[in-house]
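Hi C.,

You asked whether I'd gotten around to modeling the 452-residue construct. I have! Everything is below, sequence then structure, no commentary in between.
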Amino acid sequence: MSKQYDYDLFVIGAGSGGVRASRIAAGHGARVAICEESRVGGTCVIRGCVPKKLLVFASQFAESFADAPGYGWSEVGGRFDWASLIAAKDREIDRLNQIYLRLLSNAGVELHEGRGRLVDAHIVEVNGQHYTADKILIAVGGRPWVPDIPGKELGITSDEAFHLDRLPERVLIAGAGYIAVEFAGIFNGLGSDTTLAYRRDLILRGFDDDVRRVVQDGLRNRGVAIAYHRAPARLEQVDGGIRVTFSDDSVAEYDAVMFATGRVPYVWDLGLEQAGVHLGPGNRIEVDDYSRTSVENIFAVGDVTDRIALTPVALMEGHAFADTEFGGQDRPVSHENTPAAVFSQPPVGTVGLSESEAREAGYAVKIFRSEFTPMKYTLAGRQEKALMKLVVDADTDRVLGCHAVGPDTPEMLQGFAVAVRAGLTKAQFDQTIGIHPTAAEELVTMRQPVSS
């Protein structure tokens, strides 16, 4: 390690990817520093995956109470208190933040609190202080994007949704990606009159079409209103709340308007131009398979590269970077067959190619699909379908994609992701004995294709 610099590695951004990279690099013997302008833990821990899933858990109790009489329970339920939930959530986030701080300290990583920016390819400025480093890693993540419409400042994003003073009675969610549908389920489950507005024709663009259809039906059956081909065009403060004029000239009033219209790389005021770091479409930092930017000693991982914006992906990228640059290993990053979950209601687990992606890629495919009422709902009388679907290469019998919607599907798909990534065939799925009675057994018992 070179002694001409203050550090062997300086990491800008202490989210999941940055913390993992700094810890692993320090474990390989590097002198490492990291800076963070907010709280250590990043989007996922502080204002993303973790608090969101806690709110999802809270929102599911109403459904469980409603289903309980079918199983012999009576007088089930109670009064929901938003303030108590948010306080409990904040305590858990504080606990996790302290864990991340200890992880850095125990690894010997020096933390500098403040926004970091590049002065040149080897100098980082934090709060007016300059620090030199042999290598620099940018892991600043992304930020919500809000459309530039009149009155946009009256709306909130997912960042602010976790800190509302009270649960709004009427909520409009603009967008239809995973953040939008997850918060639609949260607000609806907690008792808000919830509307989701989307300028296109089906939610969850980029997911398998059958998944999109089943989730849409599940949301509507739970009471979420979905307005397609419509987007907010103007927001105005009125006595009754926020008046929204839509792109089709319709008008409605809400107590809160949440923009879930996408996220963008957080690259502004980073000094990238001075250092010569090249930006690609959407202002993402362009990197190669080793997370190296256009500048040889500057790297980037996580959402700021806009490859796959998932926390486990950022963790993998940060770990692989540290192993390669400081551990003497050769670890390029492969994003093929990355599993994902949507904690919507009903939830989604997915890995591999969708049916349309497989066909567009030129595969001759066989489609195996099963839709059924989950056993959990039979006595409750709930009218909702689960989905299990396999996309199979007709020529090689390899399973190209595995998609599921229904209770616990994010949990079950982790194991099937291993199988898909390992390149297992449909015959090998068929040779596996199912666990009965479970929904997951459908994925190893479907014998006849529904299309090819």
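If it helps when you're writing up: The CA atoms of residues 117 and 288 lie 22 Å apart.

Thanks,
B.
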